[in-house]
Please model this.
Amino acid sequence: MLDLLAFGSSGWGDELLGGAAMTLAVAVASFLLGLVFGSAGAAAKLSYSLFLRGVAEVYTTVVRGIPELLVIYLLFFGGGNMLQAVAGVFGYEGFIQPNAFTVGVVAVGLISGAYSTEVIRGAVQSVPFGQIEAARACGMGRWLILVRILAPQTLRFALPGLGNVWQLTLKDTSLISVTALAEIMRMAHIASGSTRQPFLFYGTAAVLYLLLTTLSTLVFERAERHAMRGVRRA
Model:
């Protein structure tokens, strides 16, 4: 069994390690994209515009209410049809195949963003409003209040929740194996089918995911301790 996990042409170790690198790349890109969606969604939910609040509410309700795998299917297969239809308007009749990495990042990013929206919104509402009033009384403008008062404290309050969103995003990358992207689950599936050793390779995939999530937990715990420095605790 150890020979099957070896590196080189005789084993699958390098393929699984490459799959882990692909998983991490998709997870990081999706998480960052999700932060963009989440920040925009939180801003919309906290705005005075009824339309923007409605759009953000529909986004978070729909994305969190349907299975994550369905979101990926809709974007990968439905997105290709949409691109085909748009290209047909301009006279292009060839076949368009969406890039698996791009579709995976956008799909998982949308899912991550829906959860990040609520985390960021709650963090913003946790900042004492008296501090914002005090900043206004000192003559600070909106941008200065955002940079010096709102953003640093929002990040501190949001870090625990964003750590959970990151773990969710990391595990959701396993779903994009249906797009044939060579991440951990895809490589484990190919290796188990080729060697008829499913327990070995799926077990190895579980170990790789556990290593990634454990390291991620340590990173977020360190970030939380850094963000809480100088803060009085009860």
Remarks:
- The radius of gyration is 22 Å.
- The domain at 20-183 is CATH 1.10.3720.10 (MetI-like fold).
